[in-house]
Amino acid sequence: MAVLAAIGHALAVAGSMTWQITWSLILGFTLSAIVQAVVRRQTITRMLGDDRPAALAKATGLGAASSSCSYAAVALARSLFRKGAGFTSAMVFEIASTNLVIEMGIILALLISWQFTLAEFVGGPIMIVLVAVAFRVFVRQRLIEAARRQADRGVAGSMEGHAAMDMSIAAGGSFWRRLGSRQGYTSVSHIFVMEWAAVIRDVVIGLLVAGAVAAWVPSSFWQHLFLTGEPLAAKLWGPLIGPVISVLSFVCSIGNVPLAAVLWNGGISFGGVVSFIFADLIIIPILLIYRKYYGTKMALTILGIFYAAMVIAGYIVEFAFGALGLVPATRNANVGETGLQWNYTTYLNIVFLLLAAALLVRFFRSGGGAMLRMMGGGPGEPGRHAHDPDAHGPQGREGNDRRRHEHGGSALPAGGR
Predict the structure, then answer these.
(1) CA 355 to CA 409: how far, in whole Å?
(2) I need a labelling partner for 265 at 20 to 30 A (CA). Which of 57, 193, 281, 370 fits?
(3) Virtual torsion, Cα 193, 194, 199, 203, nearest 10 deg
């Protein structure tokens, strides 16, 4: 009975956190789907053709607007690199698309506090600048060329089919005309559902892990680990240990925010939370994918540069926010059990769940089911194929053949990542 009670407690905590963040996830993915529907993949590649500051700034903005799970972001970065984007620009796009997205900012504010949302959008660009400088100073062109040769081999990693899909609107016209069209509605629904399909595993695992850790791990363990008795030592130790915990937790993307809330309550420093969140791109499974994509030497280079950048970014945020009095004085992240209440969270969840249902219905009525079976397939060949799901209707041989061509190959195997 004690075991069942412990499991029930962990599930209750996870369920409470899920209810608090549901509407924000739907809002974030809807906004991201709208942007991706009107910004064509070939446009992104053309903007990221080199590693100059202007291209890196565009990579940051486009990545932040192209919300992705960590696995899909890594696969998409290689796809952009193969099509001609600069290597550093591809890495910057990858960082921004997982760590500078609106849904993560909202969830941080809901679960912990608004200061962490601000820290995300301040620390993210700092990390990007540090990564760009490190690649320019320490990475030689011959290593990048070797990485390109390995990338062009097309070795499969994870979420390849999803990364190969370009679901933007093919029709011309103004932003609002394209978005308000029938094709626009279909494209937004397809991107919305596919983004959810890509990230849902990470979100569920993150919530379950956070619930279990909050329910089962005693606070004394975290206090010893994070050196809470020594304020200065804790500030220096937090950004170093934060990414290590992230790497070992195997949780990435938005799914690591609930665990970040648990760590904050446990005593990790403000900068430690920031570096923990940024470390979603160096968890062990993704490191193995880097090795497949770019070779062992470049994978180790990415690990070293990313880790150093997120640690330094954590330090800068820690001491800058501390000097400005922006570090929260209390540790009361919302990770406890709360019952269902008729408050703004419930009303927003109802509204956005209805929106999600409408997009889901449109997705399946327009033939989106076949896309779910393609998202875990092999990498598509370089090239751009506009998404126009209504061109031949959801049924019929012509429409199905065209859809397979659009999403990166004619024989993408079914299955998830």
Answers:
(1) 32
(2) 281
(3) 20
